[in-house]
Design a protein that fits this description.
Layout lengths: L2 E6 L5 H12 L4 E8 L5 H8 L4 E3 L8 H14 L4 E4 L8 H4 L6 E5 L11 H8 L3 E8 L9 E8 L6 H24 L3 E4 L2 E4 L2 E2 L4 E2 L8
Parallel strand pairs: 1-2, 1-4, 2-3, 4-5, 7-11
Antiparallel strand pairs: 5-6, 6-7, 8-9, 9-10
This protein binds 5-O-phosphono-beta-D-ribofuranosylamine.
The site of 5-O-phosphono-beta-D-ribofuranosylamine has 14 residues, from helix 1, strand 5 and helix 6.
């Protein structure tokens, strides 16, 4: 069954574009039901409109508080009846009332090897910590920011002389295949959240999946 995806994004939307390109190329059995953003200048909204997709701006300042904003946002998303909500660079905290009923149906891509380096400026955090390996993670969203069960990861080396920009580019190049491969597994019904734990092919303990250099999970 073709997976219906809702994408939430605040920024340039390169992860969204990777999804759109894979759907168009027939390498991901999915369709994007719409794109939602908290920022009118988000590149992701322009990419959605270019692709002829519904693109919805739900502005925080138009709502009394976070709870009211999230209620309006998720009412609009629910109307599109997605199977899965993908946070791809969505930079706002989502309140627990909106997250909890959707656990197992909402994922996030985060640019670090979780549980290391939650929150913002992850590449700076990695450089300051002096790690020799960094990367990206896809995880189920829970009320614990960047703390939900990790599904899959891609690793990159940190090289001598790296600055934030160089490291961010190396990670981003791996984020796109990581997100796509994770979506393929979810679309195939191979990955689920059950009782707070990731199950892969019905088994626990296999996650997080590791994206190999040939862009298939090892
Ligand atoms: C990515 O690094 C993603 O991991 C993080 O925000 C960035 C979004 O990039 N959550 P883009 O908007 O998809 O280009």
């Amino acid at each position: 069954m073709t997976l219906r995806i809702a994408v939430l994004a605040s920024g340039r939307g390169s992860n969204l574009q990777a999804i759109l390109d894979a759907v168009a190329a027939g390498t991901l059995d999915a369709m994007v039901a719409g794109v939602w953003s908290d920022r009118g200048d988000a590149g992701a909204l322009f990419r959605a409109r270019d692709a002829g997709l519904p693109a919805q701006l739900v502005r925080p300042r138009d709502h009394a508080d976070r709870r009211a904003h999230d209620a309006a946002l998720f009412a609009s998303i629910d109307a599109a009846a997605p199977d899965l909500i993908v946070c791809a660079g969505y930079m706002r905290l989502i309140c627990a009332e909106a997250v909890e009923p959707r656990q197992g149906r909402m994922i996030n891509i985060h640019p670090s090897l979780l549980p290391a380096f939650k929150g913002l400026h992850t590449h700076r955090q990695a450089l300051e910590a002096g790690v020799d390996e960094h990367g990206a993670s896809v995880h189920f969203v829970t009320a614990d920011l960047d703390g939900g069960p990790v599904i899959a990861q891609a690793r990159v080396p940190v090289r001598a002389g790296d600055d934030e920009t160089a490291l961010a580019q190396r990670v981003l190049a791996r984020e796109h295949p990581l997100l796509l491969e994770t979506l393929r597994w979810i679309a195939a019904g191979r990955v689920r959240l059950e009782a707070g734990t990731v199950r892969v092919d019905g088994r626990t303990g296999a996650a997080p999946l590791q994206l190999a250099a040939n862009q298939r999970f090892a």
